[in-house]
Specification:
heterodimer; A: alpha/beta; five-stranded parallel beta sheet; 11 helices; B: mainly alpha; two-stranded antiparallel ribbon; 4 strands; 4% strand; disordered N terminus; disordered C terminus
């Protein structure tokens, strides 16, 4: 390595993609530095804060810093993201060492094979540049790294067993599935990156049902696992260090990353190869903020497609009261799901749907409701809380979305957030394809509630956007795509991208396992390039 | 480790994890089941009940005197809270937090004194206080006083004080919020668990006592 370089590989973003790649690279003896805008924190700090704050969303537990302002569902006004267009894109990701997987549900389905061939099979969307069979070895490795537990395939063929058997299902899930099975509705366990038995030095799940805030015992995988493994191999993780600009030379090679630290220090780090592994919105911001005379549209953007084709899952939420007790919320949060609407000829007309029960407790919600009915009588109040808490269940349906160039992310140099970076701008809409899928999901949820003898569902619809994807899409044609199929930018041979930003289609699957698999694939390509 | 977490761990089992952080655990479900026969309750009471001896205890305890209705003390507020919630063993730390917030409300101490005064004015024949819901039904409390009762009940159950004098609500309790106590220990607050892997595959032990009776019989699904 040149004496002038700070590392072989410089990674921006210490979430699951960056950490997984860093670990892979460090295992092969490469020197890696990771820049992370957000801070470090401990489980103890976050869990303590959970007991002290009134907000009940899972961002408010975490630090909010000037250098890395958070996205908070409770405080949309403090967001560093401005919305345009007919639908508010409620971006929701965590900036900190370990990334958003600190507060996820750890649901790790693979994509189904047809997700990679949407255009070829159904005449809609964009095909991935490779098929399911090409990615499956990386799926298998990512599942091993994360310790995925499961049994059924949920529509995704498998050629290797899960690393662990499934976490024991809740009584609520098995009872509901038992009632629905005679009607041809098959609900099964979802694979999760959560330990059913001790694995990789982490304990088995003890059912704290705090998965989407923070697992108190580390039974659930989080990106911090591979951050710490990477650091043990010599990787340097620079927290509270915001990447502000990428520099390039006349040949199109990236020559350095400028940064600013929380103490005001600035500088530039240089490496042979660079990997952008931040959230899809933040990666876009860094590329577009790196404009220069030679590259007035920013880095990696000769196609004009940086920031274009933003996608997410339209989330249909529903609540209904069963006529019998199932006691939801005991055990981990992840409930059963059905693969019955994940794929089919219908995808020529409407979006696919992953329909799930969520094993969440609704105690706060029903207590608030019961207090309105019984504002003075603790006897009646307690009875109502007990009954509703045992019987109210929550369903969700994640609807896929087609890529649309008008759904895009850009930046406004005239507006700055607390870090001094240009504010992120988003234009977003849903589209008929997704909305037809939403209507199908609603109809099926109404049918399920009826079959269970439950009350009529109360629906909520939101773009609670936790699965942003598609802003740095990969493909063969440099005029249409930002990166090649390995995640290498068409414009810059030593600049790679990891994360959901690469997805040409977003499936119905929770994206993290696919993000991890792609990070391993890209890491391999980076290693091969450096070796040659 | 923060004070709050230490407080939390004070009554929980502790398990060491990696860097020394603690596993939050609580075992209440089994203790509730064991206590069940002692309370003298029938199985069918479980989902619809408030333990009768608890209610009685809340009403039978002594009523501290109130010297100045416009400046009632903490002992008066604590006793008032016990009667509002029909619970004789409310968490004292939480009571102190709520009282501190109420004292800075422009109407706070006045309402405490006024409602407590109504309790004293409408004691039962045996000299014990009556449930506030009865006094409200009988029209003994003004609309503002009735609202104040609901305000206290809301705060104790949700653990969040919706504060007129401050821009944001305030968390006053978490795992000791009474909405959790209403579940008879079958479900712990998020982040707490007394379970072993897989405990959640079966109905909670308390519900097993209900087999074939109680509200579940309504379902017609068995």
């Amino acid at each position: 390595m040149s004496a002038q370089l700070d590392a072989d590989v410089l990674i921006v973003g210490a979430g699951v993609a960056g950490a997984m790649a860093a670990h892979d690279l460090a295992q092969k003896g490469l020197r890696v530095v990771i820049l992370e805008a957000g801070p470090r924190f401990t489980r103890g700090e976050v869990l303590s804060r959970q007991r002290d704050i009134w907000e009940q969303d899972n961002s408010s537990l975490y630090p909010n810093t000037e250098l890395a302002p958070r996205t908070s569902p409770s405080r949309p006004d403090e967001s560093h993201i401005d919305n345009h267009g007919p639908v508010r894109f409620g971006a929701h990701f965590l900036r900190g060492v370990g990334g958003t997987t600190w507060h996820w549900q750890a649901v790790t389905p693979r994509f189904v094979p047809a997700d990679f061939e949407l255009r070829s099979r159904y005449g809609v969307g964009i095909d991935w540049p490779f098929g399911y069979d090409v990615l499956e070895p990386d799926y298998i490795r990512a599942e091993q790294e994360m310790g995925v537990s499961g049994d059924g395939d949920l529509g995704s063929p498998r050629h290797a067993p899960y690393p662990q058997g499934p976490v024991a299902p809740s009584y609520a899930d098995t009872e509901i599935a038992r009632h629905l099975h005679p009607h041809g509705l098959v609900f099964e366990t979802r694979p999760t990156a959560r330990n059913s038995a001790p694995y990789d030095g982490r304990p088995a799940c003890l059912g704290h049902h705090n998965c989407s805030n923070m697992c108190p015992i580390g039974a659930q995988y989080a990106g911090i696992v591979h951050v710490e493994k990477s650091e043990a191999l010599g990787v340097r993780v620079l927290s509270e260090t915001l990447a502000t600009q990428l520099s390039s030379d006349d040949q199109g090679r990236i020559t350095g990353v400028s940064y600013r630290r929380s103490d005001g220090q600035t500088g530039e780090l240089r490496a042979r190869v660079y990997l952008l592994a931040a959230n899809p919105l933040e990666t876009v911001r860094l590329c577009l903020a790196s404009r220069s005379e030679a590259r007035p549209n920013g880095i990696a953007n000769s196609s004009g497609m940086v920031g274009r084709r933003l996608m997410d899952h339209f989330n249909v939420g529903a609540r209904f009261n069963l006529p019998f007790d199932v006691f939801p919320g005991r055990g981990p949060l992840t409930g059963f799901a059905t693969a019955q609407w994940r794929d089919g000829a219908f995808r020529a007309k409407h979006g696919a749907v992953l329909m799930s029960f969520e094993n969440i407790d609704v105690v706060s919600e029903v207590a608030t409701q019961a207090l309105k009915t019984h504002p003075h009588d603790p006897v009646a109040l307690g009875k109502e809380i007990r009954k509703l808490s045992a019987r109210r269940v929550v369903m969700t349906a994640a609807v896929e979305q087609l890529p649309d160039p008008d759904n895009r992310v850009w930046i406004d140099f005239a507006k700055r957030d607390s870090s001094g970076m240009p504010r992120i701008q988003v234009h977003y809409s849903t589209g008929d394809y997704t909305e037809r899928g939403r209507d199908v999901a609603r109809g099926q949820i109404e049918r399920i509630a009826s079959l269970l003898g439950a009350s009529a569902p109360e629906f909520s619809q939101s773009f609670f956007a936790v699965h942003a994807s598609g802003t740095m899409m990969m493909g063969h044609d440099p005029r249409q795509f930002v990166t090649d199929p390995d995640g290498r930018c068409h414009d810059h041979s030593n600049l790679f991208v990891a994360g959901g930003a690469l997805f040409p289609a977003n499936s119905t699957a929770n994206p993290t396992l696919t993000i991890a698999a792609l990070a391993l694939r890209t890491s391999r390509a980076m290693r091969a390039q450096m070796a040659s | 480790m923060s004070t709050a977490l230490c407080m939390c761990l004070g009554h929980n089992n502790k398990t060491t994890l990696g860097d020394g952080e603690r596993v939050l655990k609580r075992r209440t479900a089994m203790s509730m089941v064991l206590a069940y026969p002692v309370l003298g309750l029938s199985a069918t009471d479980l989902w619809g009940r408030v333990p009768r001896d608890t209610v009685s205890a809340a009403l039978e305890a002594a009523m501290p005197p109130m010297e100045n209705p416009e400046d009632p003390g903490f002992d008066v507020f604590e006793r008032l809270s016990q009667i509002v919630c029909l619970n004789p063993s409310l968490d004292k730390t939480t009571a102190a937090r709520i009282f501190g917030l109420i004292k800075v409300e422009p109407w706070g101490l006045h309402h405490v004194g006024a409602v407590y005064g109504k309790l004293l004015a409408h004691l039962s024949e045996d000299g014990t206080p009556r449930p506030l819901s009865d006094l409200i039904d009988e029209g003994h409390l003004s609309d503002g006083e009735a609202w104040f009762v609901s305000h206290l009940l809301t705060t104790w159950y949700l653990g969040i004080y919706y504060h007129e004098s401050q821009p944001e609500p305030v968390r006053v309790s978490f795992e000791t919020s009474l909405m959790w106590a209403a579940l008879d220990g079958y479900l712990d607050p998020p982040g707490f668990s007394g379970a072993q892997p897989g405990d959640w595959t079966a109905p909670p032990p308390a519900a097993l006592a209900l087999s074939g009776s109680g509200d579940n019989a309504e379902s017609g699904t068995e």
